[in-house]
Amino acid sequence: MSELRLSWIAVITVFFMALNPFALAGALSSSDEKIPIIFDTDICDDIDDTWALALLVQSPEFEVKLITVAVGNTPSKAKTVAKFLEIVGRTDIPVGIGVKQRDGAHRQDAWAKDYKLSSYPGTVYEDGVQALIDTIMNSREPIKVVAVGPLPNIAAALERETRIAEKAEFVGMHGSVRLGYGGNPKPSPEYNVKAYVKEAQKVFTAPWKMTITPLDTCGIVQLEGEKYQKVLRKNSPLTRALIANYHAWYRQGLINENKNFIGTELNRKINQKLQSSSTTLFDTVAVYLAMSTDLVRMEELGITVTDDGYTKIDDNAKVIHCATEWKDLGAFENFLVERLTK
Questions:
Q1: What 3-state DSSP class applies to 277?
Q2: Does residue 116 belong to any structural domain of this protein?
Q3: What residues have CB less than 8 Å from 39, skipping those under 6 apart?
Q4: CA–CA separation, 112 vs 318, rounded Å?
Q5: Under a CB-based contact definition with an 8 Å cutoff, are residues 41 and 81 in contact?
Q6: 143-173 burial by CB neighbour count: b if 16+ within 10 A, else e?
Q7: pLDDT of the residue at 118
């Protein structure tokens, strides 16, 4: 084949990828090179973690080495992850139980209460922090640690083995740089940082490459209208598990809010919400950033985590890659729907 013909093929390929918002993902998935991932999640506290988990397992770009569960009653939360993975046929993924802070229930208990973690066909690590360390240290290539919750697991891993920061890259849903919750022009002390500030400070100052989606970008992602309806109508094992978790999570939230709800009124409110839209899908953006940054504007900013949970721009602080603005939010929503319904 002549060099001229090869050059024209290259031009056409670049042109096609510029027109197609899914071109990059498609090109990545057709490659034999997969991105090794550890996913650290505080699933069951907010439902967006479950949407992020669904996106993760639907993304052929990734080789998911481990999922660790963070915050609260982590053994109970691990049941939700394991049951979901078994339903969608991904029991090749090990589950690690992270640092436990308390006993008690969480908002997706009803969905996984009858599931026995011992029945999971894959591997379950009782010490998820050590499993995270071992996975990184034994890897022949750098691993991306994608964290979508508060950071007690990651901080504990750094405490035990500082060298993980030399062999891994951190991608997180953390912080608020210029915009707060709901696009508020005033930054917020974002939950994943504020809930465990000292742990966030340890992670944010570790010597690894860091990429984050702060509220500036992840805080305005929500599926509504036809986009949400496509997910709702799909009726695959994955979307059925996703919506069933959404139902359990939303129902328990309403009960926590008002103990006097009776059956008919409770079910009306649940159906009204579940038939109309998702909640804010913060964590899905961190999963996307682990494979691509094409749809967001990235800035390299020095970021300090303050003692009151803010992530402030500081020229003297460690430089972090921050997704501070969307280039095309609609294209990301389309990408998310396409992945979840493929």
A1: strand
A2: yes
A3: 52, 53, 56, 64, 66, 67, 68, 146, 148, 287
A4: 41
A5: yes
A6: bbbbbbbbbbbbbbbbeebeebbebbbbbbb
A7: 96
Alpha-carbon distance of 73 to 55, in angstroms, equals 24
Tell which wins on pLDDT, 109 or 264.
Answer: 109
Q: Would you say residue 276 has pLDDT above 80?
A: yes
Q: Is residue 309 part of a domain?
A: yes
Q: What whole-number distance in Å separates Cα of residue 50 and Cα of residue 192?
A: 16
What's the pLDDT at 23? Answer: 46
Q: What CATH code is carried by the domain that includes residue 75? A: 3.90.245.10
Domain assignment of residue 11, yes or no: no
The residues facing 171 across adjacent strands are 146, 211
Q: What is the mean pLDDT of residues 208-224?
A: 98
* Rg of the chain over all Cα atoms, to the nearest angstrom: 20
> How far apart (Å, rounded) are the C-alpha atoms in residues 136 and 144?
9
Token pair recorded at residue 155 = 């901080």
Q: Is residue 213 classed as helix, strand or coil in its secondary structure?
A: coil
Q: State the Cα–Cα distance between residues 235 and 231, nearest whole angstrom.
A: 8
Rounded CA gap, 286 and 323, in Å?
A: 10
Please count the other Cβ atoms lying within 10 Å of the Cβ belonging to residue 275: 10
Please tell me the distance from the alpha carbon of residue 178 to that of residue 325, in angstroms, as a whole number.
Answer: 10
Which residue segment(s) compose the domain that 64 sits in? 32-222+281-327
HEC secondary structure over 147-216: ECCCCHHHHHHHHHCCCHHHHEEEEECCCCCCCCHHHCCCCCCCHHHHCCHHHHHHHHHCCCCEEECCHH
Among 17-31, 151-165, 237-251, the range scoring the smallest mean pLDDT is: 17-31
Determine, yes or no, domain membership for 236. no
Q: What is the H or E stretch that residue 218 is in?
A: helix 215-218
pLDDT of 257:
85
Domain total in the chain: 1
